[in-house]
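Forwarding these from the shared drive since the link keeps breaking.
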Amino acid sequence: MSSMTFGRYTFRETFIHRLDARNKIFLMIIFMVGIFFQFNLWSTALLLSGFYVILLIVFMTIARINFLSLFKSLGGMWIFILLLMAIYIFIPNNNYYLPTAFTIGNVDVKWDAICQSAYIVMRLVLMLALTMILTSTTKPMDMTYAFEWYMRPLKPIHFPVNEISMTLSIALRFIPTLLDETDRIMKAQASRGIDFNHGGVFKRFGAIIALIIPLFVSALERSEELANAMIVRGYDPKAKRSKYRLLKFSYRDIFAFLLIVGLFGLIIYLSVIDTKLNPLDLVEIIFKVKGF
């Protein structure tokens, strides 16, 4: 747990760290929408997927994010990923047109199913990588100010913008504390003989229960302490507040905005011409030439 960096801000002097938090959140949403665009032709989907992966590698390299931390963050998702792949591979689909890759019993596993499951998994990994880039390069308070700025148009309809932004700020600040508390409880339980890494399903489930219950109690205690401290200091959620640091756009934000928006425009263009092309795409041609 001590090596887990997902959700924890890491100070660096990089191009991505210096971007405005409002711009980073907007561009991350645009990028995620582009990732989940659906294409009819596998050649278009594979081409863009490779471009996404290269672009994410470049972003993580610029932000100096450890690639191992991304794979460690996937540890709890492997069961879900395997289940998702099994659903796509073994459930029949009449829309598949590529030949059979192999047969398990009476089930024919199509190349379409393998490509589709791998494509879905790649989307999830890219989405997680984008979230890691955002949380690792943006201070919690800057992220809170950005969300508050986006919710500002809702103030005339008496939407509780200040209360929600404060709740979000506390939640973001609590993530590193929760990770440290989890590490402390795991070490304490391990010293009492509880093994989190070995054993069967029921033994591991019992070990997880021994971790979750103390962690839940500790989180409630810390929440109560924070609430009492805010009450003692006279916190008023409806009071008007000023900000010590103001978020400002710079030339870096303009460059990043034009880059991602241009990419999104290219994705929209490809999705439009994708529906007008011949359904016999490059992937099907390769399979026919190779004789799969």
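-- next protein --
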Amino acid sequence: MILNTDGGARGNPGPGAAGVVLRNDTGDVVKQVGLYLGVCTNNEAEYKALALGLQTALGIGVKTLVCRLDSELVVNQVIGRYKIKQAHLKLLNDAIKKLAAQFEAVSFEYVPRAQNNLADKIVNEVLDAA
């Protein structure tokens, strides 16, 4: 399965939302979720979107997952390439690692925003409705 997630905050910090899209191996959308997060930063929203996506995938029994995000920072922090300086992001990163450990196989990839447009659209729809 392929998971695309996006998070965003208007104001940074400001009202934030998460967007999640799960696709099967042929690219068909299996599930999509949007969630209002309240006031947060962009980075917090990106982490929370990834957590929501992992929880959603686990909830429908996914065992193998490729996670695609347009946040280079979050991807590189999750895979250990970048250090995490803020304590609140370290807590979110730890939560991601606990969720990821529940899969048989999971990977994290950075993708350009253009390849993450449905998740981004969900974020904007949630924020527009808030």
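The chain has one domain: 2-129. The chain has a mean pLDDT of 97.

- D.
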